[in-house]
Amino acid sequence: MALLATLLIALIALLHVYIMWFEMFAWESRGPKVFASLGKDLFPKTKAMAANQGLYNGFLAAGLIWSLVIADSAWSQNVALFFLACVFVAGVYGAATVSKRIIYVQSVPSGLAILALLLS
Q: Are 2 and 110 in contact (CB under 8 A)?
């Protein structure tokens, strides 16, 4: 079970690195394709806001990566649980306020990682 938890944490960290890149560096170029229902004129106007959100996603990724390199297993688990809980809550909030799909992209994987971590 520890291997499964590690793999899930790594995948969630990679997802948040991708989200960080997308929101910080590709918002105006790829954003209109990903969020086709929004007007293209909104992307230049919201570039700074998206970059700020991307930075927060980068912090989540950094925390999860940090949890994978901590040598002490108890500290590693505690740090991982904290950052996974942050991802879970962010996913629930995003699903409630933006798109129901976010719960499947963020909350379900982080919930599974929390479960795998607690059972390992």
A: no
d(CA 56, CA 89): 13
Its pTM stands at 0.91
Q: Both tokens of residue 104?
A: 């499947």
Residue 1: is its pLDDT beyond 70? Answer: no
Considering Cα of 24, then 26, then 62, then 113, what sign does the dihedral take? Answer: positive
- Domain residue ranges of the chain, discontinuous segments joined by +: 2-33+44-119
Q: Are 68 and 9 in contact (CB under 8 A)?
A: yes
CA distances 3 to 86, 97, 106, 116, Å, are 21, 34, 20, 9
